[in-house]
Each structure stands twice: as structure tokens, then as C-alpha cells.
Amino acid sequence: MYVKGKARLDKRTKNIVTRLRKNEIAIISHDDIDEVAANSLIDIRPSAIVNTEPSITGRYPAKGVYKILKAGIPVLDEVGEEIFENVKEGNHIEIRMDKVFLGSNCIAKGQELILDDVEKKLKIASENIKEELDNFVDNTLEYAKKEKEILLGNINVPYLETNMLNRHVLVIVRGSSYKEDLKAINSYIKEEDPAIIAVDGGADAALEFGIKPDVIVGDMDSVSDEALKSGAELIVHAYSDGNAPGLERLQELGVDSKVFSMPGTSEDMAMILAWEHGASLIVAVGTHSNMIDFLEKGRKGMASTFLVRLKVGSILVDARGVSQLYKQSLHTKYLIQLLVAALIPIAIILWISPSTQPFFRLIALQIKLLFNI
Fold this sequence. Notes:
By secondary structure, the protein is of the alpha/beta class. The protein folds into three domains: 2-119, Aconitase, domain 4 (Alpha-Beta Barrel); 147-325, Rossmann fold, CATH 3.40.50; 332-371, no CATH class. It has 17 helices and 15 strands. The strands form two sheets. It has an eight-stranded mixed beta sheet. It has a seven-stranded parallel beta sheet with strand order 13-12-11-10-9-14-15, sandwiched between helices. Strand 10, helix 9 (202-208) and strand 11 form a beta-alpha-beta unit. Residues 191-230 form the Thiamin pyrophosphokinase catalytic domain.
């Protein structure tokens, strides 16, 4: 590998993508790169990615780096944290084989990943998944006992100006399939006009598709200032002890907000808000709903999500995968059949209409003359 370019660096991938530009080199610290992070990097098309951590450990099937390599973006792995001390934002660096150079100085050395390496790790991960599943289930059940207040309803839900009573509510999370799902349900959004709850970066995902959020919830660490100033109601997710790390940012921006304290994830909180405010249906886009999703988020269990799904399950519809039902185009023969079916009544109307009968008689006469009938 030989790559050179301007360096952008951040230990949090979701932060670096806001500054990274095409053909620059991304320096990150992200073990087991998830698909959401991978997609965000692929969309930008950096010339290379340098990771201080193993991009896939083999602990579980994290397919992010596989997607990155398939997209043609080279990855230099496990270069060590010292690179964050040796490289400044905007420095021009070079990657030669498995080494990183700043000027003539070699500042880091790693392992260039190839698809064969990643495929071997994915195979190992498939063998390790049983142990991970055992740990995941044990953790989920342990914390479900502690967080059962979610199911019992013993939580103080903040008042919302947005009316959700007997309405559909669309919860948007910037998960791995949010683009496909939003495209697939575009007609539903236009026809039903649901209330929109965006979870953190899901607000920017919504705006990307021309959808204005009514409510934005979360710890506000992955949502843009533009989205926060869009006029949506802002609900800051606080820990069980009442501490709300995202509140300070909103105060600095000078926007009004409310605090909602409950255990679990911000998307769990969004569903509880919709449920408690009388939603008739909750449609979830991009939400995390399986073990791999949660392992990619760094969570060892899904107690709160399990409990919330039990509570709201009767009105919850997951839009993930909806795009698979609609992505295939109609076969040509079906289009021809539809066209013929549409033309038959038109032809009949034209044939029996007094105003068009002379025209058809003239056509018939021309045919008889042409073929001497």
C-alpha cells in the first residue's frame, strides 16, 4: 500500500466523519468497526483508514471493515495509540506498506488488512458467537430485573407539545439500514403524516430525506447544531441518577430542552415517549434490535430494549427490511400486461363513441383498399 494525504483524526468515528473529506486519511480508534460507522466512512471515500485498534477482533461477526475493504478503501490496523500524539489534525502523512510516515520519520507501524484476513476472522467469530450469546442473555436477564420499572410504568415522562394521541409515530435512528427503509416507506410518510421522533443522529438522517423532526431525543453527542436548531422539541436523555451530559451542549447553543431520566438506550426512550403520549402505531427505522446490533454499540445486553419491546410490542412495527419487499422492479411482461389492460377500456370507449366512429370507419376503409378486401 502507498497512500498519502491530509490526516483527520478522532478516537470517535462518528465525530471524524463530520470533518473528513474525500481522499483524506482517517485516523480512528475503533475496535470491531460496525456497519453504521463503515457506511459513514464509505460515503466520504477517504484514501485510507488508519486504526489504532483491531478493526475486527473475531469476538463476534463485525462486518464493518469487510464492507470498507470491499469498497476499495485500504485499512492499516493496530498502529497503536501513540499516533494521536505524533500527528496533528491536517498534517500530511504517507502510508508505505505497513508504516506511517510524517515527513521522513516513521511514526507508526501496523498491519495492512486484506479481505482474506477479515474472512478468516469472520469465520472465527461465527465459532465464538455461542459463547457471546450465552453472556449476552445472562447480562440481559440480570439487568432486566433492575430495570423492570420501564415495563411497570414507574417513570416520569416529560410533557410534549407535539400531539401523538391516536397518531402514528415514526422513530428514526441512524442505524445500518435507515436509508433503504426511509426510501421504502416514503409514500407511507407522505400519506400518513406521522409524528417524527429522531434519536440523536437520526435527526440529521431525517433532514437528509427532507423530513423535519418534531422531537429529538438522546444524549445529543452525534446530532448537528443545524438539527438542534430546526425547531424540534429537544429531550435530553439522562442517566438513572439524573445526570444529563448532553444538557450542557444545548445550554451553550441557547436552545430550550427537557430532561428525561430512564435506564436503557435513547431509542428505548423514544418509544416510551410515543407510547405514553398515546401513539396508535410506532414505526421504527434503523433501530437496534438484535444481539449483533448491541454488541456493535458496545452494549453487553439489551435489558431495556427487551422490556420496552414487551411494553409497546402491540403497536410497534419495525421498518427494517421493508426495502427488501419493494426493491425488485416489475418484470417487462407484467408491465406489458398492465399496459394492455389499461388500453382495452380506452379502445372500447373510442370505438363506441359517436365522435370517433367516422375515424375508425375511415381506417377500416383504408385497410380494405390497401389489401383489396
